[in-house]
């Protein structure tokens, strides 16, 4: 028998092992072997050695034929080994379970009754239990009704609450109570169809939802006999053989399993070397003939010199009309070729099926409505003969039953797809209602569900920033490529104003149309450069708008490339449309939640500000009004080496007022002197008494800007409204500074970080605080400006304050450096002028590095003092170690820190500004002189540290 041949062992040894195993399994006494075979008897040692070398075969045989009595004996003899070894006492799954494979041979069918009787007579002496034979599960209505009743009795809560038997978990219990079914790939797939795909931990909401959505009716299963039994049956009773093949496929509703059975059965029926089954798949009008790999390695032994023929199909996809298989599908006519010479493209056929062709028989497969649903092709009659008319009629008759079975399986597959889609849509709804606080998490869950639901290789979601704008920009872009080998996906998120060079996405965002592109590479709307940039090959695209509850487009969803190779069809469009509706609701709810959270954070910040700050009093305004203002020249405020430490805060307010008056800005813009006075006093009051970022620093920055406007040629490139905005921006650029930087706001998750985000957090707060002061009654110094001029001043003011963020400075300074280095600057253009204003703001903000050494050293100590205070907060409140710049324990490294700051920020900036105006040379020389001083201190520190280390070594 071929069962022996495939194991590649001596037949007489295997037969003896078989006899020994029958004695082990059925418990017969010596000399009472059920299935005797005449062969040389090897020693028991040889049998034992062979069984040790083929343990998988022995385990498989034991699982198929082992009696309950033998299992109980084994348990009794291994009690000591099983104590405390796991939940089921073995650390293994139960031996008898639905996954246990039971293959019935023809000889076993004939002897089944006698064997059952002999087993039933042997009862355990202690338990008096009957050993019932395992029988195939029936597909009758009675069994279906019983299963449905059992399923209904298992509700959600009593399922979780029901205790498991000792030594068995819930999964094992569920398996062991079910009927025995074959342990083959088709049964695994059938289990996947029956059960929900997600089984999360106990007492979790998604776990309960998964259990509620689990189908209650299980598929009937008919035990299939082995191929050897089919061959033996064909030689004894051809009619019974044919009926057996029909029954073999009559109860199978799993399409993949049915493919395997039909392929195998047709090969046995007509005695062919190779059988290929092509089924029409794909959207209507674009069907393809698909032959999927035959997963069952079908081995047969023929009388051809003892050589076995082993084959396994590969996946093939053909268009109707392509080749003789395609012609059969197109015409519906049977094709029988008796010699290779009759095939004009025999080499192509041989390459296609991977076999040297001698003869071919190809027939269409029809459903109950006489529509062609596939083609079955057999190649090479065994023993070199040709396919006959009898083979053709026999195959045609069998394929009639196959067509009915395939049609039923396809209908069931369609039903299961719809069920799976509805279940996943419910899971999507669950995800959206479960997570409504974080937009990134919501969109990531949406994309993961989309990939699972629509079986696509890539999914992207783009959120539109302003649907009414002429230019479509996206506030966030999410991209989820296909799952990686480790089972995870690499999710990409881009934030900010993102402009996509993708006409398809922009068209959908602008028009709201749905685009389903079957062949992207040949579609003029698709930009092939996108694939070159990403390394991804796009075949098909489905792109739809995402709308909120008001039907306004808030984003675009796009999926690429179905995993089965087909383009997206109408069913995908309908499902994706339903999917985008859920997405729109989820994203809209999350955005609304974020707006509410921002409003609460804004309120919290406002209350905190109001509780600490207050506007200037009328008494303060009157005192300043009647006081005598100093002269700018007498104070030396036009000089770059101005020393502010000789002035107190009152004198700084008076000097600021005199500054605006001397420039003629009050008269030019019709600013009320009382409003200007009130504004300056309130600004001073809204600076907190921190070590460095206080009103003195703001006055210093304002004075530096005033000196730049008085001494350099950049004033010729700036209009008077711009000069006013820059001066006010310098004075207000650090309003309400808390002595901590942007990174600290993020680490501490302060209300400011929630309100303004992670980019330029404090700078946005400084600007908004400035606006709040200007909005206070009697404080709007721009009130008398025309509307256009007012808008211009506010825009320049905002940009000026935001430009003091060094993170933003580093992003744009390379553009400024390139312009001045190449001499291509034109400071009168809006873009370059904005760039110049930003550089001037940074130059004034760090102007302390250009002051004389006495002033610069004192300011450096104030800066580090404030930094060390932040480092103490990080260590004590946030429980994190601060970086070197904020670590008080490393204060001796101050010279080195200052050198790094001067070399990284100050020197490159002032060297470039000198090329704009030579009058910046004074500031550049001041920076270089201070760098020399810091370098000397740093060298002294290094020498002192080296001497100290040498002393320690000598002591040791």
UniProtKB/TrEMBL annotation:
User: Per the annotation, how and in what number is the cofactor bound?
Assistant: Binds 2 divalent metal cations per subunit. Site 1 may preferentially bind zinc ions, while site 2 has a preference for magnesium and/or manganese ions.
Cofactor(s) needed by this chain: a divalent metal cation
Give the protein name, as stated in the record. Phosphodiesterase
Superkingdom is Eukaryota
What SMART domains does the record tag this protein with?
Answer: GAF (SM00065), HDc (SM00471)
Q: Which Pfam families match?
A: GAF (PF01590), PDEase_I (PF00233)
Q: Which Gene3D superfamilies match?
A: 3'5'-cyclic nucleotide phosphodiesterase, catalytic domain, 3.30.450.40
Q: Where is the composition biased (Polar residues)?
A: 109-119
List the keywords (alphabetical).
cGMP, Hydrolase, Metal-binding
**Boundaries of each PDEase domain copy?**
617-941
Q: Which organism is it from?
A: Acanthaster planci (Crown-of-thorns starfish)
Where in the sequence is the active site?
693 (proton donor)
Q: Which residues bind Zn(2+) 2?
A: 734
CDD domains, sorted: HDc
Instruction: Name the family the entry cites.
Output: Belongs to the cyclic nucleotide phosphodiesterase family.
Positions of the UniProt region annotated as Disordered: 82-101, 109-142, 157-201
Q: Where does Zn(2+) 1 bind?
A: 697, 733-734, 845
This entry's Gene Ontology molecular function terms read: 3',5'-cyclic-nucleotide phosphodiesterase activity; metal ion binding
| Enzyme Commission code | 3.1.4.-
Chain sites annotated for binding AMP: 693-697, 734, 845, 898
Query: SUPFAM superfamilies, from UniProt?
Result: GAF domain-like, HD-domain/PDEase-like
Any one Gene Ontology BP term: signal transduction
């Amino acid at each position: 028998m071929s069962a022996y041949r495939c194991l590649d062992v001596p037949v007489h040894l295997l037969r003896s092992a078989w006899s020994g195993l029958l004695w082990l399994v059925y418990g017969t006494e010596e000399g009472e072997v059920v299935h005797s075979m005449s062969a040389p008897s090897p020693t028991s040692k040889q049998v034992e050695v062979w069984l040790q070398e083929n343990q998988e075969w022995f385990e498989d045989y034991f699982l198929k034929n082992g009696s309950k009595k033998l299992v109980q004996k084994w348990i009794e003899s291994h009690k000591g080994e099983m104590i405390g070894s796991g939940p089921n006492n073995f650390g293994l799954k139960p031996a008898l379970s639905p996954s246990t494979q039971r293959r019935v041979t023809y000889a076993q069918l004939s002897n089944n009754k006698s064997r059952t009787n002999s087993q039933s007579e042997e009862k355990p002496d202690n338990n008096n239990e009957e050993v019932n034979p395992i029988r195939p599960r029936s597909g009758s209505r009675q069994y279906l009704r019983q299963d449905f009743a059992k399923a209904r009795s298992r509700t959600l809560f009593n399922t979780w609450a029901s205790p498991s038997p000792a030594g068995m978990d819930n999964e094992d219990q569920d398996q062991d109570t079910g009927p025995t079914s074959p342990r083959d790939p088709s049964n695994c797939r059938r289990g996947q169809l029956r059960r929900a795909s997600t089984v999360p931990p106990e007492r979790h909401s998604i776990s309960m939802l998964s259990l509620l959505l689990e189908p209650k009716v299980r598929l009937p299963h008919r035990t299939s006999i082995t191929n050897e039994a089919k061959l033996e049956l064909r030689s004894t009773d051809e009619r019974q053989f044919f009926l057996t093949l029909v029954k073999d496929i009559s109860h199978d509703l799993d399409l993949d399993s049915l493919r395997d059975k039909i392929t195998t059965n047709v090969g046995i029926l007509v005695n062919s070397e190779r059988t290929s089954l092509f089924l029409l798949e794909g959207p209507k009008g674009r069907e393809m003939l698909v032959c999927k790999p035959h997963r069952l390695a079908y081995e047969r032994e023929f009388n051809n010199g003892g050589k076995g023929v082993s084959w396994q199909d590969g996946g093939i996809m053909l268009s109707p009309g392509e080749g003789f298989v395609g012609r059969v599908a197109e015409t519906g006519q049977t094709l029988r070729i008796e010699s290779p010479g009759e095939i004009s493209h025999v080499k192509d056929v041989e390459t296609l099926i991977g076999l040297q062709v001698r003869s071919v028989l190809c027939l269409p497969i029809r459903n109950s409505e006489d529509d062609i649903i596939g083609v079955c092709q057999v190649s090479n009659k065994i023993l070199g003969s040709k396919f006959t008319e009898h083979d053709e009629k026999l195959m045609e008759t069998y394929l009639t039953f196959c067509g009915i079975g395939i049609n039923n399986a396809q209908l069931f597959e369609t039903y299961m797809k719809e069920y799976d889609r509805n279940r996943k849509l419910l899971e999507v709804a669950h995800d959206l209602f479960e997570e409504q606080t974080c937009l990134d998490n919501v969109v990531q869950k949406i994309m993961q569900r989309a990939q699972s639901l629509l079986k696509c290789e890539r999914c992207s979601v783009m959120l539109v920033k302003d649907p009414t704008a002429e230019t479509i920009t996206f506030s966030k872009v999410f991209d989820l490529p296909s799952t990686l080998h480790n089972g995870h996906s690499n999710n990409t998120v881009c934030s900010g104003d993102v402009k996509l060079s993708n006409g398809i996405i922009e068209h959908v965002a602008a028009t709201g149309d749905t685009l389903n592109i079957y062949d992207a590479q040949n579609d003029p709307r698709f930009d092939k450069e996108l694939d070159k940039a990403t390394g991804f090959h796009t075949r098909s695209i489905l792109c739809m708008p995402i709308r909120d509850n008001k039907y306004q487009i808030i984003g675009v969803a796009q999926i690429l490339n179905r995993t089965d190779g087909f383009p997206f069809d109408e069913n995908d469009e309908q499902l994706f449309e339903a999917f985008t509706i859920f997405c729109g609701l989820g994203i809209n709810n999350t955005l609304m939640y974020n707006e509410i959270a921002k409003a609460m954070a804004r309120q919290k910040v406002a209350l905190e500000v109001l509780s600490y700050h207050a506007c200037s009093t009328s008494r303060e305004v009157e005192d300043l009004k009647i006081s005598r203002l100093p002269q700018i020249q007498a104070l030396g405020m036009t000089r770059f080496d101005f020393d502010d430490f000789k002035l107190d805060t009152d004198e700084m307010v008076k000097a600021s007022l005199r500054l605006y008056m001397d420039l003629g800005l009050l008269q030019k813009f019709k600013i009320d002197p009382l409003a200007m006075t009130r504004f300056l006093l309130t600004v001073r009051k809204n600076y907190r008494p921190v070590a460095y970022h206080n009103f003195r620093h703001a006055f210093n920055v304002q004075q530096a800007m005033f000196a730049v406007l008085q001494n350099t040629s950049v004033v010729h490139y700036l209009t008077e409204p711009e000069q006013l905005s820059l001066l006010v921006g310098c004075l207000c650029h650090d309003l309400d500074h808390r002595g901590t930087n942007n990174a600290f706001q993020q680490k501490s998750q302060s209300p400011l970080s929630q309100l303004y985000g992670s980019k330029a957090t404090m700078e946005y707060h400084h600007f908004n605080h400035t606006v709040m002061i200007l909005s206070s009654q009697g404080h709007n110094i721009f009130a008398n400006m025309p509307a256009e001029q007012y808008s211009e001043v506010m825009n320049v003011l905002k940009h000026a304050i935001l430009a003091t963020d060094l993170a933003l400075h580093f992003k744009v300074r390379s553009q400024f450096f390139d312009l001045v280095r190449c001499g291509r600057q034109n400071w009168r253009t809006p873009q370059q002028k904005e760039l110049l204003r930003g550089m001037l703001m940074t130059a004034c903000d760090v102007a302390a590095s250009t002051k004389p050494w006495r002033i610069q050293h004192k300011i450096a100590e104030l800066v580090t003092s404030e930094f060390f205070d932040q480092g103490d907060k990080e260590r004590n409140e946030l429980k994190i170690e601060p970086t070197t710049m904020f670590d008080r324990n490393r204060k001796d490294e101050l010279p080195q820190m200052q050198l790094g700051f001067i070399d990284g920020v100050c020197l490159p900036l002032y060297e470039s500004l000198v090329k704009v105006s030579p009058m910046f040379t004074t500031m550049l020389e001041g920076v270089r002189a201070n760098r020399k001083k810091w370098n000397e201190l740093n060298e002294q520190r290094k020498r002192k540290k080296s001497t100290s280390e040498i002393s320690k070594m000598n002591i040791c």
